[in-house]
Amino acid sequence: MEAPSGSASLADEQPAAPTDRLDVRRQAVFVVLTFLGMMIGLLGSWFDAPPSVVWASYTVAYVFGGWYGLKASIAALREPAIEIDLLMIIAALGALYIGAPFEGAMLLFLFSLSGVLEEYAIGRSRTAIKSLVDMRPESAQVLRDGTEATTPIEDVAVGDVFVVRPGERLPLDGVVESGESTVDQSSLTGESVPVTKEPGDEVFSGTINETGSLEVRVTREATESAISRLITMVEEAQEKRAPTQQLIDRFEQPYVLGVFTMTAIAIALPLWLLNHAFEPTFYRAMTLMVAASPCAVIISTPAAVLSAISAGGRQGVLFKGGEHIETAGNVDAIAFDKTGTLTEGNTRLTDVRARGDALSTDGGAVGSEPIADTALETNSRDDDRLLALAAAVQSRSEHHLAEATVEAAQERGPEVPDVSDFEAVVGKGVHATVDGQTIHIGNPRYVESVLGDRPIDGRETGLEAVRELEANGKTSVLVVSETADGLRVLGWLAFTDTIRPDAAEMIAKLRERGVEQIVMLTGDNERVAQYIADELGIDEVYAELLPEEKVEHIEALQERHEAVAMVGDGVNDAPALATADISVGMGGAGTDVALETADIVLMSDKLDRLPYAFALSKETRRTLYINFAIAFGAIAIMVLAILTAGIPLPVAVVGHEGSTVLVSLIGLRLLRFDG
């Protein structure tokens, strides 16, 4: 029985799918002809039909029942290799040779029937995710010179604007230009609740626009859309064999050769040493060959793993291969990044405080009058001046705190001066030249390591302010000016990030599902990290970490636990993600990096998909154990019964093929797993 072949690529799937269906239908027709030939031959022999009718019927059964098995055996022998199909063909011919044509025909019938059922089961698991292709419209209503034109999605370019009305599916990925609506993204991200979309929000092809009309500017070509990438990666994942499957593949050849050897011994020893009659000895050897064939063992892993990959894909969880499903089932410790993972990642600048008159001597504020705002506390010209200087330096940085600073400055309008000689110190801070002075922006570690023991006017005042802000759960940095006259603290900035509303529930579910240790690894300061950890009930917190230090903590966890997962954004945490046994990326629907780097990708930003992913992995491992118990148990019971009680070939055939079909159907159950 052939192991399932790899799935077609996305480009090939449309023409390949009808061919696959036609082939399965042809196999089904062959199974029916085999059954009819077998039954007519049996009834003919019972009711004394002419021998020509009986043997013609059995010939039909043997030809159509053994057609695909013989083709597979010949193809394997050319490699050269020995497939299990060859065992079945030889056993059927052996039964025919000793005058038991019905038993041989029954073997071929059940063998070909199980093959069709397995193809159906595996096909269901492979095509479940491919049905997403049908969700993507073939054309888009593109705005051309103020009018709508129906355009095939292959001809729509990045930058074009298309219109989507209530009830329609979005044809391409893009950003909303105008209009407001709710969009059902469940087909892509697994989210059960429609998501509100307004100008500036990202939308994805294949999702359903529900309430309002939207004008969307295209950001990705059709072949690069989120849904296309999802399908492609699921197909690639299905082709990557799980460790258990690799092990089975490695031992298939030795096992099959062992079955042939055992069959030969079962024939030779009774004939030569015990002087048994040839026909019963040969019959028992053929029965033994059928019973010992590992069809159920070989199909048990792909039936379960491919079903799990497809089930996860439909729930917004992308496993990048069968090996990750198996490994994730063993995870008993999880490390989380903080920003963008346990928090929403929408970092906001909340406090800007100039120290005394430290900025007054620099000529007052830059820009307009101070701006009163409840979210950002600035209450003097000096505060505005501090914000302008900080934004100038941070404009060159990609750090989330820098982005928040620049965004706040843009909203509040102070004139931002030019900057030069920018330099970043990873995990600590940045500095650059502004208006002839060097402006340093960093956390206390930056002050200690970069500025060292040099005297800093206002050091203690600034550090005390930072500590007070951190005690309230805010991330804080100092702004220090360096001139020919020395260093002085100009002021400090404070930022906050919102804890995800589903984070606490997610952690509770992980504990219910067997995760023993939950850890936070963050580059943020210890007070802020501890504040969030206390809110969420996290076991251990390691703060103020550089990327290489996160790796060290992952390695330490691996020494104490069976398997360690790291959950992060796939960019800043790349070394730690690569070190962990399983890496999980957040928000893959809109994040190229998460799709490319993580072993498991949560296509939405919903943390509830994480417990689902680990629950699906555990259920897959449990299914594999059940399948192996059935497969090996059936072999052991039948072999023992043959050697002791001498069960007939039809019983061995039913037991062998029945266990094969059973493990296929048990694996197929995972398609409906909902956590």
UniProtKB/TrEMBL annotation:
This is Heavy metal translocating P-type ATPase. InterPro entries: ATPase_P-typ_cyto_dom_N, ATPase_P-typ_P_site, ATPase_P-typ_TM_dom_sf, ATPase_P-typ_transduc_dom_A_sf, ATPase_P-type_domA, Cation_Transport_ATPase, HAD-like_sf, HAD_sf. Its main location: membrane. The chain crosses the membrane at residues 28-47, 53-70, 105-122, 255-274, 286-309, 624-647, 653-671. Belongs to the cation transport ATPase (P-type) (TC 3.A.3) family. Type IB subfamily. GO terms for molecular function: ATP binding; ATP hydrolysis activity; ATPase-coupled monoatomic cation transmembrane transporter activity; metal ion binding. It is found in: Cell membrane. One of its GO terms (cellular component) is plasma membrane. Residues 135-235 form the P-type ATPase A domain. It is a multi-pass membrane protein. PANTHER family: CADMIUM_ZINC-TRANSPORTING ATPASE HMA1, CHLOROPLASTIC-RELATED, PROBABLE CADMIUM/ZINC-TRANSPORTING ATPASE HMA1. Keywords: ATP-binding, Cell membrane, Ion transport, Magnesium, Membrane, Metal-binding, Nucleotide-binding, Translocase, Transmembrane, Transmembrane helix, Transport.
